[in-house]
Structure formats: structure tokens, C-alpha cells
Amino acid sequence: MSSQFKTVAIAGGTGTLGYHIAEAFLNDGSYNLKILRRKPETENEKAKLLASKGAEIVYADYDQKDDLVKVLKGTDVFVSAVNGTSLYDTQVPLLAAAKEASVKRFIPSEFGGEFNKIGVNPLIDGKIKFREEVVKSGLEYTFIFTGLFQEFLGWFGFDVKNKKATFYADGNKKLHTTSLSDVGKYTVETLKMPEARNAVIKVAGATLSLNEYLQKFEEVSGEHYSTSFFSNAILFKNVGLIIIHS
């Protein structure tokens, strides 16, 4: 199915996740792509590479609403892939500028585990508050939850170099994970789905337990991992601090 949208702007498009989202839009070939970067201009190899593939690199002062509105004029979809510990404060100016520039749809910087309860940690609290702002803005929106990024599973106890696994939760606990490249592809596909308008989209490349992921690591490496288990609920309570992005 083709998309009604033609021009997409991405904030954070040269970051770890944002770059994969940008590449997915370029590979799809159906969109004009803007990569929004902060002033002042600095050298960035990823920005150069995206530009060589057809993306337009635009610069704006995120603290100047008029500047943001100017570069967002003509944009149909705004994708936020910004990072940081204060995603609420960072994204509020982007949302305000997108609304004034008549952007049709806003996709905020979710892309991680789904949290709906205030008090998990400051980052998650900010994300929940910002989702509320997006809904109140009147713009179309899509919230995309993807689970953990598969590339970062090492942060959850898998030491590939030393062939060790340290689990801080039940080894039978199921985790949703998605690769960064697939997060990009799923984001593109939401623009072709009528049901993604003003909706929550939940995707997962795999849903396995920690023990099952360990088995995959061992199968790929052909080596046995030594394992340790600790009881530490704090790690999983604060999972959002680790997985959401950069």
C-alpha cells in the first residue's frame, strides 16, 4: 500500500537509532527526506552519507521556534529520534514547531519498552508526559513500541568477549527485542497503514526468554557460556533508561 505522505523530517537522524530510521526511508524510495540538525553546523560523517543517498540536511536552532517552523514547512511527517535524559523538554519545542508548520503526523521518540505508569524513572515519566502533549496537540500521531534493541543485549548480561552471561532476573523472563534496522523498517511501514493513525503500534523482532537468548548466543558462537544469576529488580525497573536510544 502506498503512503499519503511525501516529505518526512527526522530529528536525531544521525544518532544510533535515527540513522537506521533515515536509511529505511531512503531505501523505501517513496519519500523526500529531511534530516534536521542543530546549529551550529558541525562535521558529521553520517550526515554526509545520508546526504549522498539523497537526504536533505537542514539546520535549525532548536531554541528558536521561528527557525524550526521555517525548516519544517512542507513536511508531512515528523519523526523524533532524539535522545537524552529529558525527552519531554527536548521534544516540546519540536512538537510546537511541527504544529505551527502544519505537519500532518508526529511520531515521538518512543522506540523501546512500553511504560504507562508514572514513577518508573524520570526518563519514562517524561516520555509519558510528552505522549499526553502529542495527543493534546491535535496532530495525528503514532506511538511505536519495539522492546529492547537487539544490538544492546550485551548490556543485559551477555558478555560476548568472555563468553559469560549474568542475569539479574528470572532466566525464564520473556523479553521483546527488535533490531535497529527493523525498527527503521517498521517506522516506514506505519505510514502506509491506515490503522496506525492516532494509534499505538507494538512490534517485536523476537520474543524469547533470557535463557533462550543465551542458547542463541551459544549456537552462533559454537561455545558454551558460563552463567551467573542475581536477584536485582532495579535493573529491569530501570530498563527504559538503557534501551530507548541514542
Automatic annotation (TrEMBL):
Residues 6-235 form the NmrA-like domain. This is NmrA-like domain-containing protein. One of its GO terms (molecular function) is oxidoreductase activity. The lineage of its organism: Eukaryota, Fungi, Fungi incertae sedis, Mucoromycota, Glomeromycotina. It holds the Pfam family NmrA. SUPFAM superfamilies: NAD(P)-binding Rossmann-fold domains. Keywords: NADP, Oxidoreductase. It comes from Rhizophagus irregularis (strain DAOM 181602 / DAOM 197198 / MUCL 43194). It comes from the Eukaryota.
